[in-house]
Structure formats: structure tokens, C-alpha cells
Amino acid sequence: MTVDAVVGSTSVCFVTDNVSFYEETRLLDKGKLTITESSISWNGEKLQFSLAYPNICLHAVSRDPYGGDENVKFPHPHLLLMVDGERVWSNGEPSISGEGDTGMEIDGGEDVSGEENGTDFPTDEEKASFVLRFVPSDQNDLDSLYDAIAECQALNPDPEDFSENEFEDVQEEPEGDVNNENGNGDIDPENFTDD
Question: Which of 18, 55, 118, 127 stands 20 to 30 A from 159 (CA)?
Fold first, then answer.
């Protein structure tokens, strides 16, 4: 169901009822998924939460029951979200993420992980990632959900993606400072060489 409404100061872009909510492959709840300009909100029978767009690192539609990998078996077409940060949907339940150990224990009982050992294992300082799946009762809603999230996520760029110091070393040259024979700053195409 497509909705263009305003709730409070946030525009609602899409709402769909009768959605099943999974973490990885475990069914957690059934309820309503609402896509707004500022977040994705879940209002289920057991759980209620919102996900801010900067915490969503990936969203996709999967219609393949194996997702291209025979080891991953999820039998329903769904909207997939990869979310960084805290498990706001958990209500204190333990994580079921299949990420495994974050480091290795070596002989002295010392934990080696992350940059210290040159591996790509996450460290305690890095955010954990979780895979969430939303299965609408009407599969025709999948593309509309994806499009609404893409539009709204573009309105909410991750502040960590941009920093003031990012372009500090780049110096812009003012226009017209080109020294050439005609002295006006323009390049004469007849006298141009690739020297």
C-alpha cells in the first residue's frame, strides 16, 4: 500500500501490513512496516522499533530462495536489510548472527583481533552487522518497499561518510590563471600542445 502522508514532521512514503519479520532465518514477529523520510519503523505484535537510515548499510530485494548461495536457505521472497549497530529489535534476546569469533586465542590466552594481527576480523570498537528480512504477504510490495527506502535513504546520508578534512589537501585553482600567449587566460586551441 503506497502512502504519501505526513505523521508529525515526517513524511510517510510507504506502509504495508501483514509482514513477517526475521533476523537471519528466525521468525521474530508479524506486523506493519512503515517507510518514512527519517527511518524504517516496525510495529509488530511483539516488537516495535525504528531504524535510522545511517545504520542501514545495505538494502536489497531477494526473490531467490537460496540467494545465489546453496548454503543460505531462505524460502521466501523478501526485503533484506543489513544493519549496523545495536539490536534495537531484540528486547534483550541473545544475538543469532552467524558471524562467529571476532579473534583468535593464542597460547598465552591473549586475544588477537582486528588490525593488531592484520586480519579483517571485527574488533570490539567496530559495530556488529545483522541481517534482517521482511516478507510482505503481497510480493508485489517488494519493489515499492525497495524504491521507498532508496529514495528516503538518499535524504539521510551517513555523516561518517563525509568529513570536513576529507578534501583538505585538495587546492582549487582560480579560473583564468592559465598563462598563455594571448594573456587572457583562455587556451588557444590552435597553439595547444601536449608537452
Answer: 118
